[in-house]
Amino acid sequence: MRRIFCEGPNVLRGHFTPQGSKNGVLPLLAASIIFDSVIKINNVPYIEDIKTMISILQNLGISCKFVNNSIIVDSRDIKSFEIDWELASKMRASFDLLGSLVFRCSKAVVPFPGGCLIGNRKVDMHLWITKQLGFDVQIESGNVVVNDFDENHVNEEIKFWIPSVGATKNATFLGMFVSNSTNKTVIFHNVAIEPEITYLWDFLIQNGANIYYDEEKRVLKIGPSKLVHSSVITVDNIPDRIEAGTYAIAACATRGNIWIEDNFDKKYSVKNMLSKLWEVLKEIGVDISCLHDGIEVKIVKPLSSFEISTDVYPGFPTDLQPQMVSLALSVDGVSVVRENLFDDRFVYVGELLRLGADINVVGNKVATVYGGKNLKGAPVRATDIRGGAAILIACLMSEGQSVVSDVYQIERGYESIVEKMSKLGARVFEEDQKPLTKSGQEILR
Fold first, then answer.
1. Domains and CATH numbers, the chain
2. Which pLDDT belongs to residue 358?
3. CB 3.0–4.6 Å: which of 20, 75, 254, 423 could bond 43 by disulfide?
4. DSSP 425
5. Are 243 and 319 in contact (CB under 8 A)?
6. How many CB atoms lie under 10 A from the CB of residue 159?
7. Do residues 245 and 320 touch, judged by C-beta distance below 8 A?
8. Alpha-carbon distances of 391 from 97, 142, 259, 357, 383, rounded to whole Å
9. Where are the beta strands (DSSP E) in 153-197?
């Protein structure tokens, strides 16, 4: 079992370049299934969730290779429409392949998904939408089986009861199949509009999809499409806004400063995609300078406690909620963090308590954080991707040695996190290295 050793307290300072977006590349990989062309996706992080998705695609008989932070996908000789249960159990995004498999094969067998244990993450909306679009949906031995499309049972206008990211991805590909089969336009209301979703739509539009979307009204319209045929279709993945936000928050929590490189297209720049985070950090006293080529985050005065509530985009991201709880631990006073999207996102709090945190969670929905207290290093466990990042941030703030186990959870979403934090001045070490304490003594294993 690999572990991360951290000797604190630390201060993070320096230059940071965000990785390619984990949540951005996964829908692009799903989209690669629908094309009769080779798809090359650039700026891809080499993280566990990407490795798992590559394995899932390869298990379907799809050629999929990772080369120099690019993925090259050729699905022209796809062999199967059944996703392997063991691979699907490792990540929730495996379920987002349902729509693209149906588009390509007219049917799909997809296991109920695994991934982070952060509450009751149902797929009932996915199944309801699939039925509304005229497909037969059955549950067999833990698998969702979709087939037998009937154009006479298509509902051409569907309203989501919540803006679900995963259901929006599946609805996109299912809607394209239905529209091509019936020669009619399918309309979805109250869809998710996260940047990773709109970037998927932009990519599909650029390559022949008949898609129109209105972000303000949360409307998606899909008409009959004629996808392009090319030897190679190349797309550049957007920056990872959650990774960038995590390091910005870590710099604030350790009272450091960080320069975040930001050269992507305006709509998909880190500045734009994280506008809600910058707003919150400014309110509590962080100095944020958004320039044309980057964002400077620095502490120039004492920070104040805060209240935040997570919400669907463009609200405050649930994927940055745990990190903000760790930031609250560093601030004198009482902060309140409300979780509105997931039932049990505060599962990581138990590990923060091991470090000496004073946090009260009510109903798995509201965390009251009593900040400004000294944290002490301890053995802790990464509970999930974002909770693991929050735990590591708290370890950076703690006095003495901390040891983080279940590191694979963090590595599902963060590329080379130990190396990147070390470059920013953190005393963090991999399991197979020989870390030293501040006094030069080797840390006892």
1. 4-19+239-430 (3.65.10.10), 22-231 (3.65.10.10)
2. 98
3. 20
4. T
5. no
6. 13
7. yes
8. 31, 33, 23, 11, 9
9. 157-159, 186-189
Q: What is the dihedral of CA 244, 166, 192, 16, to 10 degrees?
A: 10
Query: In whole angstroms, what is the distance from residue 136 CA to residue 126 CA?
Result: 13
CA torsion, ordered 411, 416, 421, 423, to nearest 10 deg? 180
- The size of the chain, in residues, is 445
- How does the average pLDDT of the chain come out, rounded? 93
- Of 6, 64, 105, 116, which residue is the catalytic one? 116
Note if the pTM is more than 0.85.
Answer: yes
- Which tokens go with 396? 């950076």
Q: Give the per-residue pLDDT at 342.
A: 86
Residue type, 346: F
Burial of 363 (0-12, 13-18, 19+ CB in 10 A): exposed
Question: Over the stretch 229-245, which tens digit does the pLDDT of each residue have?
Answer: 889 999 999 999 999 99
Residue 43 has pLDDT above 90, yes or no: yes
Gap between the Cα atoms of 387 and 400, Å rounded: 21
Q: What tokens were used for 203?
A: 């990519």
Q: Is the pLDDT of residue 118 over 70?
A: no
Among positive and negative, which fits the CA dihedral 239, 313, 108, 132?
negative
For 60-164, where are the alpha helices, taking DSSP H only?
Answer: 85-88, 98-105, 124-132
- Beginning with the edge strand found earlier in the chain, give each strand of the sheet holding 210-214 in spatial order: 157-159, 186-189, 219-223, 210-214
Where is average pLDDT lowest: 66-70, 166-170, 367-371, 441-445?
441-445
For 238, the token pair is 């957007």
116 as an active site residue: the answer is yes
Question: Is residue 432 over pLDDT 70?
Answer: no
Return the structure tokens found at 224. Answer: 């009959």
The DSSP secondary-structure symbol of 308 reads E
Residue 215 CA from chain centroid, whole number: 20
**Tokens 């995004």 sit on residue:** 93
Nearest to 391 by CA among 428, 440, 340, 339: 428
**What does DSSP assign to residue 320?**
G
